[in-house]
């Protein structure tokens, strides 16, 4: 057993090691404020699990528009269709009220496998989600703004984002997520219709107005690929996920 010097041990050994892996070291004084965040996580986690059970009974994958999926798969509106191996539509829960996580564009592994966040970035995203009580990514719907890989993993161009954005908006309209997590500047700008940096956008709750006039909470955070290059920023992503899970 790990010797963690707290009067009340809020974490299992596995959770402690997982948090340490993503950059949260609970053995240092500066991280003691994470305890309050974790109490919030534990409190809301039970409500989240109960909600998912009810939603899974009322909804199933057949509710997700097959015509939209077909349109995305067959899209040839920009030059990315010429170099793609797979169109990455998205994966995970299509139950109404699930979380929706939106990245920027597929990378090499995503293009090969046809699923979002399939490489090292995906592994880090999985670890981060587990740290706040989302045991499996299948509990969320995960997609990208741009559905095809830009050559050489370059950033998608403005015109490519604009061609794909209607698909993303329709996915949001159909899925009716309870909240949206956007990862990376391109995703944030596409959803919030601005040009602000991640530093300017993260740390507070934004709202996306859906077609049926619902205000969907939007939380902005760093893309896992960025966090792999700048691991010292992982604690900021932890803060963002704590904010997301506390928003109703």
UniProtKB/TrEMBL annotation:
All residue ranges annotated as the Uracil-DNA glycosylase-like domain in the record: 91-242
CDD domains, sorted: UDG-F4_TTUDGA_SPO1dp_like (cd10030)
Top-level taxonomic group: Bacteria
Record's keyword annotation contains Iron: yes
EC number: 3.2.2.27
Annotated GO biological process: DNA repair
Pfam families reported in the protein's UniProt record: UDG
TM annotation in the entry: none
Keywords: 4Fe-4S, DNA damage, DNA repair, Hydrolase, Iron, Iron-sulfur, Metal-binding, Nucleotidyltransferase, Transferase
Catalyzed chemical reaction(s): Hydrolyzes single-stranded DNA or mismatched double-stranded DNA and polynucleotides, releasing free uracil
GO molecular function terms noted in the UniProt entry: 4 iron, 4 sulfur cluster binding; metal ion binding; nucleotidyltransferase activity; uracil DNA N-glycosylase activity
Enzyme class: hydrolase
SUPFAM superfamilies: Uracil-DNA glycosylase-like (SSF52141)
Family as reported in the entry's similarity comment: Belongs to the uracil-DNA glycosylase (UDG) superfamily. Type 4 (UDGa) family.
Protein name (database record): Type-4 uracil-DNA glycosylase
């Amino acid at each position: 057993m790990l010797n963690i010097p707290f009067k009340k041990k809020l974490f299992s050994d596995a959770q402690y090691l997982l948090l340490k892996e993503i950059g949260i070291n609970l053995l240092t004084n500066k991280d003691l404020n994470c305890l309050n965040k974790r109490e919030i996580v534990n409190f809301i986690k039970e409500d989240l699990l109960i909600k998912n059970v009810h939603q899974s009974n009322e909804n199933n994958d057949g509710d997700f528009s097959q015509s939209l999926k077909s349109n995305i798969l067959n899209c040839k509106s920009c030059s990315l269709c010429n170099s793609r191996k797979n169109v990455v539509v998205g994966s995970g829960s299509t139950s109404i009220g699930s979380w929706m996580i939106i990245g920027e564009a597929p990378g090499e592994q995503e293009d090969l496998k046809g699923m979002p966040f399939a490489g090292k970035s995906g592994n880090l995203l999985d670890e981060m989600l587990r740290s706040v009580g989302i045991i499996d990514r299948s509990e969320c719907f995960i997609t990208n703004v741009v559905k095809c890989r830009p050559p050489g993993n370059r950033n998608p161009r403005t015109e490519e984002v604009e061609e794909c954005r209607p698909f993303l908006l329709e996915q949001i309209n159909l899925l009716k997520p309870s909240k949206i997590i956007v990862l990376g500047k391109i995703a944030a700008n596409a959803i919030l219709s601005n040009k602000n940096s991640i530093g300017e956008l993260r740390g507070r709750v934004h709202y996306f107005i859906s077609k049926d006039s619902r205000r969907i909470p939007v939380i902005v955070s760093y893309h896992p690929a960025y966090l792999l290059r700048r691991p010292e920023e992982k604690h900021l992503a932890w803060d963002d996920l704590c904010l997301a899970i506390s928003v109703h």
